[in-house]
Write a structure and sequence with these properties.
This protein is of the alpha+beta class. It is 24% helix and 25% strand. The two termini are 27 Å apart. It has one helix spanning 27-46, and strands at residues 7-12, 20-24, 56-62, 67-69. Strand 3 and strand 4 (67-69) form a beta hairpin. The chain has one helix and four strands; from the N terminus they run E-E-H-E-E. The longest helix has 20 residues, at 27-46.
């Protein structure tokens, strides 16, 4: 069951494709996952596994009714936030 405060990473490996979602427990975990997915896309491009790509991703939090993009207290998205455990 999805509860208020639950988080998930969304990732689209080839825009405009459909996103897939992975539940995460912490912001650092989300950053690790997003960075890993991005690195994997670069690896595939550099090793001619796929000819090109246009990816997108982010972190969402469940507000009790729907999923919304996560921003820190300063209005930064997960991509613009440097979180240390």
């Amino acid at each position: 069951m999805i509860e208020k405060g639950d988080m998930r990473v969304w990732w689209i490996p080839q825009v405009p494709g459909a996103p897939f979602h992975v539940e995460v427990n912490t912001i650092p975990e989300a950053q690790l996952l997003i960075n890993s997915l991005a690195a994997y896309d670069i690896f595939q491009l550099e090793h001619n596994i796929k000819p090109d790509y246009c990816n997108a991703g982010g972190l969402q939090i469940f507000d009790g009714e729907e999923w919304e993009d996560w921003y820190d207290d300063d209005g930064n998205s997960i991509e613009d936030t440097d979180i240390e455990e």
